[in-house]
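lol ok so funny story. i was supposed to be doing the assay writeup but got distracted and ended up predicting the structure for this chain instead. priorities right. anyway since i did it might as well share w the group, maybe its usefull for someone
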Amino acid sequence: MRILLGLDGSENSLRAAEYAANLLEYFPDSTCTMVYVDTNTGNWQKAEIFEDVANDTVRESLEKAQEVLNKRGLLYTTKVLYGTDIAGTLCRYAGEKHFDQIVLGTRGLSNIKGIVMGSVSHRVLQFAPCPVTFVK
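and the output, tada:
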């Protein structure tokens, strides 16, 4: 099984990393790719200070999830994708690389905020080319 673990730095994405680790242990022939979608792709990023902040956020998100899998001695790869549409970027990558499962933590938006903004989770569920598991 090829698992795409989507990360955003939230506590729920760390829970998703724990869930993915359980899958990797249960299905030993599985592989996991940790994916962070960096949405800071605008022109402002050229300013060095903002680029450093963006890079720190990405690194911290990946390191926390890596720690979860490292503690169990599990193998994984990491990938940083760039784009303003997180859900679209994740779904496109999952399709291109033929993942069998997407595992994501939910942000827990309120019903009103989720309706107005649309949630990444909802959009991934709509457009994913494979099964999706949400961890809360």
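The radius of gyration is 15 Å. The first helix runs from residue 11 to 26.
back to the writeup now i swear
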